# Entry
Amino acid sequence: MKLVRPTLPLMIQTTVLVVLLVLAACQRVAEDDAADAISDAKIIKDTATTVDITKPDVAPDAKADIAKDVAAPPEQCGNDLDDDGDGYIDEANCYPGPNLRVGSEWLDLGVVAIGVGKEKAGMRTFGAALKNEGMVVTAEDVMVRPVGTYPQYVWAEQLISPSGVVDLAAGEWQTSPNRGQVGEAASTLQVGMSPTISVIAGPWKVAFTHAAQIASSWDGQTTAAKLHLGVYARPEIAANQIAYFDLDVFCVGGVPMPCAQLATSPQWQIMADRINAIWKTASIQLGTVTFTDLDGDDGTKYKYIDNVLEGQPQNELFGVYQATAKKRPQSTAATLVLVAGLNDNGLGVAAGLSALGGVPGWPGRRTSGLAVAIDPDKWQIVVDEGPDVSYAGDVWGVVIAHEIGHFLGLWHTDEKAGGQHDTVDDTPPCNLDESIEKTKETCPVQAKYLMFWAPAATSLTLGQAKVARLSPALRP
Ligand SMILES: [Ca+2]
Ligand SMILES: [Ca+2]
Ligand SMILES: [Ca+2]
Ligand SMILES: [Ca+2]
Ligand SMILES: [Zn+2]
# Structure
């Protein structure tokens, strides 16, 4: 795949349909940028050096007991050594994990060092407990680098179930990168992102690796990385039970209005109703929603999120999530920032970006965040038109519902071009020549999916519902 850096559409569109095209294009650009970077990196397949930890994992409490029994020295942070001999290096919460809600668990797998070069991925074994349904493995590059040095893309390389089924094979990301989030400096792998996979108890094996510097500065070189791995899990939610998705909403720079006002506005109610109506297919609903203003210098700076396709520190998505983290450091929910624009002040009336297979309650990280742009002028028109107008739900409600889909582990059913599609069987791909753009005219069936790159409707299939309900971002 050629590395393309598309320019974003500049026109402000006024119809719902075109608005959605604009937002989806933006989403697609950001996601594909990562995939393009990997393809260009031309990493050699199947050269991963795996360090398999053969002994089955044990729960943290049991680990502590064993450690006491044999009087092993405690794990010490930051020395790159496995001091307590449990197979994990610097795993004693040396690096922060997510905030936990009642019933959720965090298993710290310590760090895996990756040397300079393209050849290494560390494999770790972790235990999935009984009654554990939603599970996501995270990898975060914690290496301290000189100022101006970019972190690298990180992605899941292998996933093997307790019964030996290979859900993700080494090198598979090259043809099917839609098994997890490929991200700059951080990556997630939602176990069960393909509906044929179930989260079963026992030792899972997972390996993460890294590619290259980010797309915009890719120079063919890799640098060393240090990946902090962990597993976030929640208890199962019965099939007949509603699963709730908690959300911390931030009104950035007064967008779309001061948050106290938004919380009680008919427009938010219309948006929330629309989101819930769309997700009803999967028995998923918005849960606890909090509203917090991000004002002052941060509000001014991040009202328009710039350089979303660039590396840190220019990329303001990193900055806005860090700013919101200061406001709600103990949050256990996903972070939704409402801004006036993503990457360009003239970008349509709505646009969105979300983590894929997101982790709730990890303030300050892109893996815990969603961003949605609301054009302030258009918002004002909608407010002036009064509470009977469904526009807010049809536009911004649908955008947020689509981004929630990404957060819950769903990829686009089809991208604008090329052969990539999701791994969900009951969303058949639109098989077109790769040079033909996939639109609601050329792909009339696929365009009806909420997760089509440019959705013309809001359908969710049973397969998609199954994937989404395996997200650990949900709670009973
Ligand atoms: Ca250890
Ligand atoms: Ca150590
Ligand atoms: Ca800005
Ligand atoms: Ca499909
Ligand atoms: Zn999308």
